[in-house]
Amino acid sequence: MAGSFNLQNVVDTYKSCLSENKEIYIKYYIAGWRELVSFMNSLGSLFSFISKDAVSKIQIMETFLMGENGAHYLTVQSMVKFELNNKLVDFTQSGSHPESGCRTLLRLHRALRWLQLFLESLRTSTEDSKTSIMCSEAYNESLAQYHSWFIQTAARLAFRTLPGRDAFFEVMNAGSQQQVVAMLGEATPLISEVHQITEDLYAKNKLLELP
Ligand code: 1Q0
Questions:
Q1: Cα–Cα distance for residue pair 203/211, rounded to 1 Å
Q2: In this protein, which residues make up the domain named Glycolipid transfer protein (predicted)?
Protein backbone atom coordinates (compact mmCIF):
# COMPACT_ATOMS: atom_id res chain seq x y z
CA MET A 1 0.00 0.00 0.00
CA ALA A 2 1.47 3.34 1.02
CA GLY A 3 5.10 2.20 1.21
CA SER A 4 7.00 4.53 3.49
CA PHE A 5 4.27 7.11 3.80
CA ASN A 6 3.84 8.34 7.31
CA LEU A 7 1.72 11.26 8.51
CA GLN A 8 4.51 12.34 10.86
CA ASN A 9 6.73 13.12 7.84
CA VAL A 10 4.05 15.45 6.52
CA VAL A 11 3.76 17.21 9.87
CA ASP A 12 7.55 17.53 10.04
CA THR A 13 7.90 19.11 6.59
CA TYR A 14 5.22 21.69 7.38
CA LYS A 15 6.97 22.40 10.68
CA SER A 16 10.19 23.09 8.79
CA CYS A 17 8.42 25.30 6.27
CA LEU A 18 8.43 28.58 8.18
CA SER A 19 11.53 30.61 8.93
CA GLU A 20 11.83 32.70 12.09
CA ASN A 21 10.41 35.73 10.35
CA LYS A 22 7.59 33.68 8.83
CA GLU A 23 8.99 33.25 5.36
CA ILE A 24 8.09 29.99 3.60
CA TYR A 25 10.96 27.76 2.49
CA ILE A 26 10.16 26.43 -0.98
CA LYS A 27 12.30 23.37 -0.37
CA TYR A 28 10.09 22.13 2.46
CA TYR A 29 6.88 23.32 0.83
CA ILE A 30 7.50 21.04 -2.12
CA ALA A 31 8.85 18.26 0.11
CA GLY A 32 5.40 18.23 1.74
CA TRP A 33 3.80 17.73 -1.68
CA ARG A 34 6.26 14.96 -2.51
CA GLU A 35 5.18 13.08 0.61
CA LEU A 36 1.52 13.50 -0.27
CA VAL A 37 2.09 12.37 -3.85
CA SER A 38 3.71 9.20 -2.56
CA PHE A 39 0.57 8.65 -0.54
CA MET A 40 -1.64 9.33 -3.54
CA ASN A 41 0.29 6.85 -5.66
CA SER A 42 -0.97 4.10 -3.41
CA LEU A 43 -4.58 4.99 -4.20
CA GLY A 44 -4.73 3.48 -7.67
CA SER A 45 -4.54 4.48 -11.29
CA LEU A 46 -7.58 6.78 -11.33
CA PHE A 47 -5.47 9.19 -9.30
CA SER A 48 -2.48 9.15 -11.62
CA PHE A 49 -3.60 12.16 -13.67
CA ILE A 50 -3.64 14.14 -10.44
CA SER A 51 -0.26 12.94 -9.23
CA LYS A 52 1.30 13.54 -12.67
CA ASP A 53 0.22 17.16 -12.57
CA ALA A 54 1.40 17.57 -8.99
CA VAL A 55 4.78 16.00 -9.85
CA SER A 56 5.22 18.22 -12.88
CA LYS A 57 4.61 21.30 -10.74
CA ILE A 58 6.99 20.06 -8.05
CA GLN A 59 9.61 19.53 -10.75
CA ILE A 60 9.19 23.04 -12.16
CA MET A 61 9.84 24.41 -8.68
CA GLU A 62 12.83 22.11 -8.15
CA THR A 63 14.34 23.22 -11.44
CA PHE A 64 14.17 26.86 -10.31
CA LEU A 65 15.56 25.94 -6.92
CA MET A 66 18.55 24.14 -8.42
CA GLY A 67 19.11 26.57 -11.27
CA GLU A 68 21.51 29.50 -11.54
CA ASN A 69 19.02 31.79 -9.77
CA GLY A 70 18.33 29.19 -7.10
CA ALA A 71 19.27 31.50 -4.24
CA HIS A 72 16.29 33.72 -5.16
CA TYR A 73 14.01 30.72 -4.76
CA LEU A 74 14.90 30.10 -1.14
CA THR A 75 11.52 31.34 0.09
CA VAL A 76 8.18 32.14 -1.48
CA GLN A 77 8.75 35.76 -0.47
CA SER A 78 12.16 35.97 -2.19
CA MET A 79 10.78 34.23 -5.30
CA VAL A 80 7.92 36.72 -5.63
CA LYS A 81 10.29 39.64 -5.26
CA PHE A 82 12.80 38.23 -7.74
CA GLU A 83 10.31 37.19 -10.43
CA LEU A 84 8.35 40.45 -10.24
CA ASN A 85 11.44 42.66 -10.25
CA ASN A 86 12.78 40.82 -13.28
CA LYS A 87 9.46 40.67 -15.16
CA LEU A 88 9.45 36.89 -15.14
CA VAL A 89 5.72 36.54 -14.45
CA ASP A 90 3.06 36.49 -17.17
CA PHE A 91 -0.11 38.33 -16.21
CA THR A 92 -1.85 37.35 -19.45
CA GLN A 93 -2.12 34.10 -21.39
CA SER A 94 0.17 35.16 -24.24
CA GLY A 95 3.35 36.06 -22.38
CA SER A 96 6.79 34.55 -22.68
CA HIS A 97 7.01 33.11 -19.14
CA PRO A 98 4.06 30.72 -18.98
CA GLU A 99 5.62 28.58 -16.25
CA SER A 100 6.84 31.10 -13.72
CA GLY A 101 7.48 30.01 -10.16
CA CYS A 102 4.70 32.35 -9.03
CA ARG A 103 2.00 30.78 -11.20
CA THR A 104 3.19 27.25 -10.53
CA LEU A 105 3.19 27.74 -6.78
CA LEU A 106 -0.26 29.34 -7.03
CA ARG A 107 -1.62 26.00 -8.31
CA LEU A 108 -0.10 24.19 -5.33
CA HIS A 109 -1.34 26.93 -3.03
CA ARG A 110 -4.91 26.38 -4.21
CA ALA A 111 -4.46 22.64 -3.68
CA LEU A 112 -3.16 23.33 -0.16
CA ARG A 113 -6.53 24.89 0.68
CA TRP A 114 -8.16 21.62 -0.41
CA LEU A 115 -5.73 19.69 1.82
CA GLN A 116 -6.45 21.94 4.78
CA LEU A 117 -10.21 21.44 4.42
CA PHE A 118 -9.93 17.73 3.83
CA LEU A 119 -7.64 17.04 6.78
CA GLU A 120 -9.80 19.17 9.05
CA SER A 121 -12.84 17.19 8.05
CA LEU A 122 -11.02 13.88 8.51
CA ARG A 123 -9.94 15.05 11.95
CA THR A 124 -13.47 15.85 13.07
CA SER A 125 -15.11 12.92 11.28
CA THR A 126 -17.02 10.14 12.97
CA GLU A 127 -17.07 6.42 12.26
CA ASP A 128 -19.85 6.65 9.69
CA SER A 129 -18.31 9.57 7.77
CA LYS A 130 -17.35 8.83 4.17
CA THR A 131 -13.91 9.85 2.90
CA SER A 132 -15.23 10.24 -0.64
CA ILE A 133 -17.80 12.79 0.54
CA MET A 134 -15.34 14.67 2.74
CA CYS A 135 -12.91 14.78 -0.16
CA SER A 136 -15.41 16.06 -2.70
CA GLU A 137 -16.85 18.64 -0.30
CA ALA A 138 -13.36 19.99 0.31
CA TYR A 139 -12.77 20.00 -3.44
CA ASN A 140 -16.03 21.80 -4.23
CA GLU A 141 -15.15 24.47 -1.72
CA SER A 142 -11.63 25.04 -3.04
CA LEU A 143 -10.05 23.72 -6.22
CA ALA A 144 -13.16 22.94 -8.27
CA GLN A 145 -13.76 26.57 -9.24
CA TYR A 146 -10.39 26.63 -11.03
CA HIS A 147 -10.89 23.40 -12.97
CA SER A 148 -12.64 22.70 -16.25
CA TRP A 149 -15.75 20.55 -16.30
CA PHE A 150 -13.67 17.70 -17.69
CA ILE A 151 -11.15 17.73 -14.84
CA GLN A 152 -13.90 18.13 -12.24
CA THR A 153 -15.63 15.05 -13.61
CA ALA A 154 -12.47 12.96 -13.61
CA ALA A 155 -11.59 14.11 -10.09
CA ARG A 156 -15.06 13.29 -8.72
CA LEU A 157 -14.92 9.87 -10.35
CA ALA A 158 -11.58 9.18 -8.65
CA PHE A 159 -12.86 10.36 -5.25
CA ARG A 160 -15.60 7.75 -5.36
CA THR A 161 -12.94 5.02 -5.23
CA LEU A 162 -11.23 6.32 -2.07
CA PRO A 163 -10.79 3.76 0.69
CA GLY A 164 -13.14 4.04 3.63
CA ARG A 165 -12.30 5.98 6.76
CA ASP A 166 -10.75 3.07 8.66
CA ALA A 167 -8.46 2.05 5.81
CA PHE A 168 -7.58 5.68 5.26
CA PHE A 169 -6.54 6.14 8.89
CA GLU A 170 -4.56 2.95 8.59
CA VAL A 171 -2.46 4.09 5.61
CA MET A 172 -1.62 7.33 7.35
CA ASN A 173 0.60 5.07 9.40
CA ALA A 174 0.47 7.11 12.58
CA GLY A 175 -0.85 4.64 15.13
CA SER A 176 -4.33 4.32 16.60
CA GLN A 177 -7.23 6.45 15.37
CA GLN A 178 -6.84 8.71 18.40
CA GLN A 179 -3.18 9.19 17.58
CA VAL A 180 -4.00 10.01 13.96
CA VAL A 181 -6.60 12.53 15.11
CA ALA A 182 -4.05 14.14 17.44
CA MET A 183 -1.52 14.34 14.65
CA LEU A 184 -4.06 15.84 12.28
CA GLY A 185 -4.73 18.40 15.00
CA GLU A 186 -1.06 19.26 14.86
CA ALA A 187 -0.92 19.35 11.04
CA THR A 188 -3.92 21.52 10.21
CA PRO A 189 -2.89 24.72 12.07
CA LEU A 190 0.56 24.50 10.46
CA ILE A 191 -0.96 24.08 7.02
CA SER A 192 -3.42 26.93 7.61
CA GLU A 193 -0.63 29.24 8.66
CA VAL A 194 1.45 28.47 5.59
CA HIS A 195 -1.65 28.89 3.44
CA GLN A 196 -2.61 32.22 5.02
CA ILE A 197 0.86 33.71 4.69
CA THR A 198 0.97 32.77 1.00
CA GLU A 199 -2.55 34.06 0.44
CA ASP A 200 -1.72 37.46 1.97
CA LEU A 201 1.54 37.74 0.03
CA TYR A 202 -0.16 36.83 -3.26
CA ALA A 203 -3.07 39.20 -2.60
CA LYS A 204 -0.72 42.06 -1.82
CA ASN A 205 1.12 41.49 -5.09
CA LYS A 206 -2.04 40.82 -7.15
CA LEU A 207 -0.90 37.30 -8.02
CA LEU A 208 -4.03 35.36 -7.07
CA GLU A 209 -5.43 35.22 -10.61
CA LEU A 210 -2.30 34.35 -12.61
CA PRO A 211 -3.21 32.49 -15.83
C1 1Q0 B 1 -6.86 11.75 -1.35
C2 1Q0 B 1 -7.28 12.10 -2.68
C3 1Q0 B 1 -6.45 13.06 -3.41
C4 1Q0 B 1 -7.27 14.01 -4.15
C5 1Q0 B 1 -6.54 15.20 -4.66
C6 1Q0 B 1 -7.48 16.38 -4.83
C7 1Q0 B 1 -7.06 17.29 -5.88
C8 1Q0 B 1 -7.82 17.11 -7.14
C9 1Q0 B 1 -7.13 17.82 -8.25
C10 1Q0 B 1 -7.54 17.29 -9.59
C11 1Q0 B 1 -6.91 17.97 -10.75
C12 1Q0 B 1 -5.53 17.53 -11.18
C13 1Q0 B 1 -5.36 17.54 -12.68
C14 1Q0 B 1 -4.67 18.73 -13.23
C15 1Q0 B 1 -5.15 19.96 -13.05
C16 1Q0 B 1 -4.46 21.18 -13.57
O17 1Q0 B 1 -5.15 21.66 -14.70
C18 1Q0 B 1 -4.47 22.21 -12.46
C19 1Q0 B 1 -4.11 23.59 -12.93
O20 1Q0 B 1 -2.83 23.62 -13.44
P21 1Q0 B 1 -2.60 24.28 -14.88
O22 1Q0 B 1 -1.12 24.16 -15.12
O23 1Q0 B 1 -3.42 23.50 -15.88
O24 1Q0 B 1 -3.08 25.72 -14.77
N25 1Q0 B 1 -3.57 21.77 -11.44
C26 1Q0 B 1 -3.87 21.85 -10.14
O27 1Q0 B 1 -4.93 22.33 -9.74
C28 1Q0 B 1 -2.86 21.32 -9.15
C29 1Q0 B 1 -3.43 20.11 -8.51
C30 1Q0 B 1 -2.43 19.51 -7.57
C31 1Q0 B 1 -3.07 18.43 -6.77
C32 1Q0 B 1 -2.12 17.85 -5.78
C33 1Q0 B 1 -2.75 16.79 -5.00
C34 1Q0 B 1 -1.79 16.06 -4.20
C35 1Q0 B 1 -2.52 15.10 -3.36
C36 1Q0 B 1 -2.20 14.50 -2.39
C37 1Q0 B 1 -2.93 13.45 -1.65
C38 1Q0 B 1 -3.26 13.87 -0.34
C39 1Q0 B 1 -3.79 12.82 0.53
C40 1Q0 B 1 -4.30 13.46 1.76
C41 1Q0 B 1 -4.39 12.64 2.92
C42 1Q0 B 1 -3.11 12.16 3.40
C43 1Q0 B 1 -2.99 12.26 4.81
C44 1Q0 B 1 -1.97 13.20 5.23
A1: 15
A2: 25-173
Nearest CA to ligand 1 atom 21: 107
Tell me the CA–centroid distance for residue 72 and ligand 1, in Å.
Answer: 26
Q: How far is the CA of 132 from the centre of ligand 1 (A)?
A: 15
Mean pLDDT over residues 150-169, rounded? 95
Q: Which of 102, 107, 184 to mutate for ligand 1's pocket (most ligand atoms within 8 Å of CB)?
A: 107
ipTM for this prediction: 0.96
pLDDT in tens, 7-56: 999 999 999 999 999 999 999 999 999 999 998 988 889 999 999 999 99
Domains of the chain: 7-204 (1.10.3520.10)
Q: Is 92 helix (H, G, I), strand (E, B) or coil?
A: coil
Do the Cβ atoms of 61 and 101 come closer than 8 Å? yes
CB of 49 closer than 6 A to ligand 1?
A: yes
Query: Which residue lies with its CA nearest to atom 12 of ligand 1?
Result: 50
